[in-house]
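Reopening this ticket.

The earlier resolution said the output was attached, but the attachment link was broken on my side. Pasting everything inline this time so it's all in one place.
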Amino acid sequence: MFLNSNGRTIQAWPCGKSQHVQAIEPWTQPHGMYGSAWDRIREVRKAAAQRASVAESDRLEAAIDESKWILDLREDFFEDPQEPRYSEDTWLRATEFLRKHLQWARESKGVNIEIPKILPGKFGNIKFHWKSPKYELLLTFPADPAKPVTFYGDDYGKGVVKLSFAQSEFDFEPLVFLAKK
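Inline output:
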């Protein structure tokens, strides 16, 4: 037994150096319903991650609900009378893509991507726009389900990325890479 600096007696053994002892970590000994303190720490972290995930999911759903105004844009919003209006089908495909991508980034890559602004684009496209002091990202989700999603990413000085990918590819790495910065 050893008297620590707090005046408490703890288990210890000599570590080989004179005038020095090594404390036996109390968290390695089982106690309570969790078995050990490490098990308890894992449970607390898991619960916190689930709460954060639920809160993030709630904020995402609120942003998606708020973006429904795009579907109600009046005729005078459009410069060109021939320009296609925003369809609910496009909006649903775009928002489902966003849900899947943010969930994939959080669960598979451990990256919490901020919720973007959801904006109307030209010709019935839906845009997702992220802007931070470190980067700007723009995904344009086309009205035509056969056309690819276009991506623009700028990390302000280090590089600009422009590319496109299929609408079904929600596991899109460049967005995660730039969001990590």
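Reporter confirms the inline version is readable. Confidence is low (pLDDT under 50) at residues 27-32. Residues 74 and 85 are 9 Å apart (CA to CA).
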